Amino acid sequence: MIKCEECGHDNPLGSIFCRQCGGKLDIENIKPTLEPKSKMNIINLVRNLIGGIILLVVVWIIGSMAIPQSSVNRILDEDGMKKADEKLDFLLAKIKGKFGENKYTFSPDELTYLYNAKLTASETGDEQSYQIGNVYFSTWGEQVVILMETKLLGVVPVSFSIKGTIPENSTDLFVLNAKIGHYSVPRFMRNIVLDKFKAAAEPSSVQQIINGVSSFAVEDGEFVVRVE
Length: 228
Description:
Blueprint (H helix, E strand, L loop, with lengths): L1 E2 L6 E2 L25 H30 L11 H18 L7 E4 L1 H12 L10 E11 L2 E10 L3 E10 L8 E7 L2 E2 L6 H10 L3 H9 L2 E5 L2 E5 L2
Antiparallel strand pairs: 1-2, 3-10, 4-5, 5-6, 6-7, 7-8, 9-10
Helix pairs in contact: 2-3
């Protein structure tokens, strides 16, 4: 509608004179203002650029989450596996109340081998959501780094990792950082990653060790387990 400036009457579009007072309508004031073509091109260019940047950021985040971190395939030779097996046997015997040492030391390679080959099945977890592949243990100074490789929907390879410290005389891990792939997860979303590791700690053999030892620690790049 076109409002008459003289009497305020609304007239249909296309009217030249007001149908109520007969005054001439100011058609020029109701015409849409056309932006210069060059200005519109700049606006569209900026809009497309911002859209492209947002798209790249989203792709980068998704890619960082979906591309697994590079992990070193730690392989012990036959003699190394035999020594690791013996340590585990002595540790389990001590936990069951038999004779044995109060302190056992495992290298990251030994712990990685024992966890994947002896303490857990090759794959666990809900096949409809994700499958646990391998879990790798390493250290960073006095900190613990654990990397877990999984497959979302049983197909898409993804890695979750946590880094933390073990309080003195404790079997708990105080998490310092959590990642999905190469993407650091904000603190308020950290449980998304930690929930994945709960399944990795559920096997009865792992729980038996956690419940049976008095403390874990990282000393000189190795994992030290103490049993009272």
